[in-house]
Amino acid sequence: HIVRELQKRDPGVTEIRALELHPYRNRLGHDIKKPIVSVVADITEPESCRTAFQDVSCVFHCAALVSYNFPADTDRLHKVNVTGTQNVIRLCQEMGVPRLVFTSTSEVTLVPYFQHGFFSAVVNQTETKAACPDDPS
């Protein structure tokens, strides 16, 4: 959705880099007016990501692992969501990226409904229902 909105709304964007575990695919079927560079990398391996951070003005960090398994693989969740995010922040600092937008995941807003967390209550659930602003400024 971010790629679609950048394509549609921001005339200042000249290139979009999509850093993903698999090559980027336009699953929404939106118009592609600005070039999209697909970077296949893993945020848990920062050196694989370095080229995606070169000469960019903003990074949208949406990468995350959400687990519905019980018990959850907390080591993997930590590796992707905590260490991976630390890697993204560090790369932004090293490469001089002036802006980082961190979207986080539902994993950080879930409060265990029972003591050991099999069911969860969602906190601030209305945030995900916010509409895109009409004014791109």
Give a description of the structure.
- By secondary structure, the protein is an alpha/beta fold.
- It has helices at residues 2-9, 46-49, 74-95, and strands spanning 16-20, 36-40, 59-61, 100-102, 110-112, 120-122.
- A two-stranded parallel ribbon has the order 1-2. A two-stranded parallel ribbon has the order 3-4. A two-stranded antiparallel ribbon has the order 5-6.
- A hairpin with a 7-residue loop joins strand 5 and strand 6.
- The mean pLDDT is 79.
- This is 3-beta hydroxysteroid dehydrogenase/isomerase domain-containing protein.
Give the structure's gist in a few sentences:
The protein is an alpha/beta fold and 137 residues long.
Write the layout of secondary structure elements.
Elements: H1 2-9, E1 16-20, E2 36-40, H2 46-49, E3 59-61, H3 74-95, E4 100-102, E5 110-112, E6 120-122
Organism: Graphocephala atropunctata
Domain 3-beta hydroxysteroid dehydrogenase/isomerase: 1-109
GO molecular function: oxidoreductase activity, acting on the CH-OH group of donors, NAD or NADP as acceptor
